[in-house]
Write a structure and sequence with these properties.
mainly alpha, 70% helix, globular
């Protein structure tokens, strides 16, 4: 391939990989209803968990995280420039948020962002995951854990790397993730946000 096309191809490939809807795929594998038809309607692991099938939720979580990790890992493995790695990270994340395979109506990106961060720097990834897990465990609100982790990630990246393009990419993902959780934030403030494991009837 022409070297001038490598970076654009990597970005497009990352977006398409991010667009793979593991919530829908895992639900079909386990014979469950489409996750967009119940609960929050979000095609993500937390909503799949509301079906009561923990294995399907775990597969969704791992799949969504793995696609974020793989895209960035490959970009680093093939020694793309730092700017390109940052763009690949953003592309795979936005592929999950706005997937072409689901008419651009995707998940909220927590697991995919975690995979991206682990591939960029495992220390950053684990630190952000710790914020997510601790916040979600003690509050029993997955959305609060996501919001806390999103707010923490660019601060942690800045402390570790300084002002770099990859830190900027983490900041962009953080803002997008918070934006995707804006409705959750409103429900948290109103006391109407469902807790982890709470079931809702199919719509």
């Amino acid at each position: 391939m022409d070297s001038s096309l490598v970076v654009p191809a990597a970005i497009i490939g990352a977006y398409l990989l991010g667009s793979v809807p593991f919530a829908v795929v895992s639900s079909k594998l386990f014979g469950l209803a489409d996750p967009r038809s119940y609960g929050s309607g979000n095609p993500g692991a937390t909503n799949v968990l509301r079906s009561g099938n923990k294995k399907a939720a775990l597969l969704t979580l791992l799949g969504d995280g793995a696609k974020g990790w793989l895209a960035v890992f490959l970009a680093k493995h093939y020694m793309l420039p730092d700017v390109a790695i940052g763009l690949v990270a953003v592309a795979v994340f936005f592929g999950h948020l706005f997937p072409v395979f689901l008419k651009f109506k995707g998940g909220k990106g927590v697991a995919t962002a975690a995979g991206v961060l682990l591939a960029l720097d495992w220390v950053l990834g684990l630190a952000t995951l710790a914020v997510w897990i601790l916040s979600a465990t003690f509050s029993r609100y997955s959305s609060l854990g996501a919001l806390m982790a999103a707010a923490a990630s660019p601060l942690l990246a800045a402390m570790m790397w300084g002002a770099t393009f990859q830190m900027l990419a983490v900041g962009v993902m953080s803002l997008a993730l918070i934006g995707k959780h804006w409705g959750n934030l409103q429900r948290l403030l109103a006391g109407t946000e469902p807790k982890i494991g709470a079931k809702k009837k199919p719509r």
